[in-house]
Specification:
This protein is of the alpha+beta class and 636 residues long. It folds into 3 domains: 242 residues, Immunoglobulin-like; 172 residues, C8orf32 fold (Roll), CATH 3.10.620.30; 209 residues, Jelly Rolls. Helices cover 17% and strands 41% of the residues. The protein has 12 helices and 40 strands. The strands form 10 sheets. Strands 1-14-15-12-2-3-10-5-6 form a 9-stranded mixed β-sheet, covered by helices on one side. It is globular, with a radius of gyration of 30 Å. The chain starts with a strand and ends with a strand.
């Protein structure tokens, strides 16, 4: 990253929001067009913090769309709610020659609720205009201005590059603040190799970046947010929905949230308190009590999004959840916390960035905007047990891949702290497959097997027990798409919630599994757990790659062959061990039967782009050896 310091009048000129800019496609740098579906010609934001209770945000976006995949970046919309007011909004569309083809005024924008079908109530709304392109490329310019009393609502991140396969021609960020005590804290991320124009005065911070080329997403690469050049922004002294705050660390934020978001919201009706006390009567161990309360919540409430309260981040009261028997993640977590308190079990409200991609709270950046989900942490024997109160199916203490192995914000009355949730890594994500099958002379097979899973592999499988027969059969035919003519004869499931283990017992058959060559039969001994995934090939890999969780599979099969047949060819034993994992395969004849033993470990980790070909070769070899053939023939 290179910094260039320049005078404030440069930014005043740069950010003049001129309507006379030339948006001809032919003027674009060809390097910005390469690998791009869209190009941000201008992407500008001016944040003006006029006082602790007055913030104005101005935005200008000019996007040239090259094809249908780029249309998503040229949506003309802005969100608002009871606290965020739109002062002005307009848009203009230009053709490839820079000629204006449509002028969109504020009255042309549609106004509708921003909630989805799972949200009961929200005050969030959107002004939106859908432009239907008649040709590519085209350019859309959007200008809007919004104001709010919530100076804690400063946009948390400014991206100089918006997504994979999107270029930036010019990106500008300006933050003005009326006094030094209103100055926000900024953190620069991934700016290496980018020319940054920066200027700082006693009342403003200004950044400008030009010509950032698009890059393609690559298999197993980290999320775009981890790679993109950006600035993180957080207020220190601010106003938020009627409350003032001064936040310098996570402890400060925990105290502020406890006092302003959670205090007084854990009251329960006397009848409910009596009920949960009766349920836990005679139980002395707090963890056992917590399990009973968690089961009660799962059986008596359901999840519905309710985006109200302080900026949509304050939970509805426990009394209201108890009355209506539903709530969102905030409401259900707060309700469960209140029930636990009623039976003498301490629990802490937790904010987390949920999703299969593991996103950490920034340990050095105490920011109200981080997090999209709420869970609970229960301290017990010097460790935390984590529960997601929106789930009606997960066992106690098992959070699955939605909130696992990431830094989260635990909110306590005496301060907040950053803690890492439970991780499910490598051998913890375990699958054991044991079975036997018979190969018949006509090439068909018939057998029985048992599959036992733990960790994330459990998370991927245990909901099968609640599926219809049609969906279960569809699942197995997709799972074993390498077996033609598969027939699922019977199945039985056991979901052991205490051990967090899911067991599947199945009887299966398939016609024409083995190939015939004269009087010989050729077949892959590993029928039921072939590794079919081979990472995409790249001639010039650009990005690092990551394996977030890893897994371990163990397999043991006993194979009976037709009477009167013997083995002509059998694969040699294979042993591979490297930094990506290990693979062991042994196929041998014992007492006239074929015994297959297999073990595959894939290790979690973040690896350099130069390691990718090695990992791909590893997985390619696993796939090849998993498909190793046995040849049998009649014995004379």
């Amino acid at each position: 990253m290179r910094y260039f310091f320049l005078l404030p009048f440069y930014f005043l000129s740069l950010l003049g929001f001129s309507q006379d800019s030339d948006y001809q496609f032919d003027l674009l740098d060809s390097e910005l067009v390469e690998n791009a579906n869209a190009i941000f010609r201008q992407d500008e934001m001016i944040i003006s913090i006029l006082s602790k209770k007055d913030l104005v945000l101005r935005r200008k976006k000019v996007i040239t769309v090259l094809n249908e995949l780029g249309d998503q970046y040229a949506m003309a919309y802005v969100g608002y709610d009871n606290s965020r007011k739109i002062k002005s909004i307009s848009a203009t569309v230009y053709d490839s020659f820079g000629n204006r083809i449509e002028k969109i005024k504020e009255k042309d924008f549609q106004d509708f609720s921003a909630v989805d079908g799972n949200t009961l109530y929200s005050d969030s709304r959107v002004k939106y205009y859908r432009y239907t392109p008649i040709q590519y490329p085209y350019t859309l310019e959007l200008n809007y201005e919004v104001s709010t009393k919530n100076t804690g609502e400063i946009p948390a991140t400014w991206l100089f590059l918006k997504d994979f396969m999107v270029s930036t021609e010019q990106s500008n960020l300006v933050i003005n603040f009326a006094s030094p005590d209103l100055e926000p804290v900024l953190k620069e991320k991934n700016l290496e190799g980018i020319e940054v124009l920066k200027n700082k005065t006693t009342q403003s911070i200004q950044y400008s970046v030009g010509k950032v080329r698009a890059f393609k997403e690559e298999s197993l690469c980290p999320s775009f947010e981890k790679l993109a050049p950006h600035i993180k922004i957080r207020p220190v002294n601010f106003h938020y929905e009627g409350y003032d705050a001064s936040i310098n660390n996570w402890s400060d934020l925990g105290i502020w949230m406890s006092e302003n978001l959670l205090r007084g919201r854990d009251e329960l009706p006397a009848a409910t308190i009596s009920k949960v006390k009766a349920l836990t009567s005679g139980i002395d161990d707090n963890l056992d009590k917590a399990k009973i309360v968690y089961k009660y919540v799962q059986e008596n409430t359901r999840y519905i999004s309710v985006q109200v309260g302080i900026g949509g981040i304050q939970p509805i009261s426990a009394i209201d959840v108890d009355r209506v028997k539903y709530g969102d993640c905030k409401g259900l977590s707060n309700y469960t916390k209140a029930l636990l308190k009623a039976v003498g079990v301490e629990a802490y409200y937790v904010h987390v960035e949920a999703g299969r991609d593991q996103v950490n709270f920034d340990q050095d950046f105490p920011d109200l905007a981080q997090g999209n989900h709420a869970i609970l942490a229960i301290p017990y024997n010097n460790q935390y047990y984590w529960i997601d109160c929106t789930s009606q199916v997960h066992p106690f203490g098992f959070i699955g891949d939605f909130t696992d192995n990431r830094k989260v914000f635990v909110i306590k009355p005496d301060g907040g702290e950053i803690v890492t949730t439970s991780s499910y890594l490598n051998e913890q994500n375990f699958q054991l497959t044991e079975g036997l099958y018979t190969l018949f002379e006509d090439g068909s097979i018939q057998g029985e097997l048992e599959i036992s899973t733990k960790g994330i592999q459990y998370d991927d499988r245990f909901t099968l027990a609640d599926q219809s027969e049609e969906k279960i059969e569809k699942h197995y035919k997709k799972h074993w798409n390498n077996i033609n003519n598969l027939n699922v004869g019977s199945y039985q499931f056991e979901n052991n919630r205490n051990e967090v283990r899911f067991t599947e017992q199945l009887s299966l058959s398939a016609a024409n599994y083995a190939s015939k060559s004269g009087d010989r039969l050729l077949f892959a001994a590993n029928v039921f757990n072939k590794q079919q995934y081979i990472p995409a090939r790249y001639r010039n890999r650009k990005l690092p790659f990551e394996i977030q969780r890893g897994f371990l599979d163990e397999d043991k099969f006993t194979i009976s062959i037709p009477i009167g047949f013997g083995i002509e060819a059998i694969p040699e034993a294979i042993n591979i061990d490297n930094k990506y994992g290990s693979y062991n395969l042994l196929i041998e004849e014992i007492d006239g039967k074929i015994i297959l033993k297999r073990k595959l470990l894939v290790k979690s980790g973040t690896y350099a782009n130069t390691d990718y070909s090695g990992f791909r070769d590893f997985m390619k070899n696993v796939s090849k050896y998993d498909n190793s053939k046995i040849v049998i023939k009649p014995i004379l």
